[in-house]
Amino acid sequence: MATIAHSLFCFDVLVASLEKREHLTLPQVQHFWARYQSKDEPGGRATLQPDHLDNSDHAASQEDGDDALSDSDPGLEELSGDEGEPPAEGPADPPSTLQIPSISRLQAASPSSASTSSIPSSISASSSRQALDDPSSKTSSNTSVFSFGRSSQQPSPTLKEEQYPLFVTWNTVSGRGHKSLRGCIGTFESQELSAGLSSYALTAAFDDTRFAPIELGELPSLAVHITLLHTFTPCAHPLDWSLGTHGLRISFTYHGRRMGATYLPDVAVEQGWTKEETVVSLMRKAGWSGRSRDWRNVADMRAIRYEGKGEGCGWSIWREWRAWIDQDSENKK
Predict the structure, then answer these.
(1) Residues 62-89: pLDDT tens digits?
(2) Nearest alpha carbon to residue 266 among 285, 238, 244, 281
(3) CA distances from 316 to 163, 216, 220, 321 (A)
């Protein structure tokens, strides 16, 4: 299950990239977030020199394949690798040293956005041309979309980390609380969380071709949402899934081409769609141009349902938490 610590980690990776500095590791973020949550409890402010953190780094893994994306798509996905339920093993306990990367005091300037999209933020995944019946096949694309996550340095685990397929979504939030999609990229291939989250946090921020790369001045307006996927099950038919519980991934043949698309579990409910409307929307995102009532007539329709619980946070949460870390670090010197 995704956590706020995962979201804070993605924020820290993005800010560090924009400021050209080192970011905290995922184990450090998880430790400090737990400490921050307990800071007002009696004895909650212990030393910031924990005895189970690591500051060593390793490069994130990359993956192959292309995404399919139309300019009207409300989200972007990356589909590669097999679709099975990933293992859920505990993260490593790294060694005992800690050096907190310093950050600049970012000014809370008026939010700005390089995005001209009017797409609602509630739609968090979109088209893929990858056939569901061939996990080893690569997707084809009519747009230029990176097919692998960006490389980002992460701690080298002593034990195998938790692995999940995942999506990272960046939104801009207006003064009235309205969210607009700013970037979304993910993968159905299981990723170790330290490497996968750091890689896709940057890929979604900088390489979603529908938007200009996120800039430093936009940070005060940003929010991030993380979704970890699990329990992939072939559907008996395209409507063999539950609204609000399952995400849906489909593939079909149209005009001699194999097409595919996916929506994450929250999309259909947030849009107020029925299951049939969701399937038709997915088909259109994949490139189908037939009449809505004819959706059942496409050749070789296949569907896979999956589950995933998302979590997110906004800039203000990250900024307050990170300032607390810096202040407590100064107090302990």
Answers:
(1) 233 333 333 333 333 444 333 333 333 3
(2) 244
(3) 29, 15, 7, 8
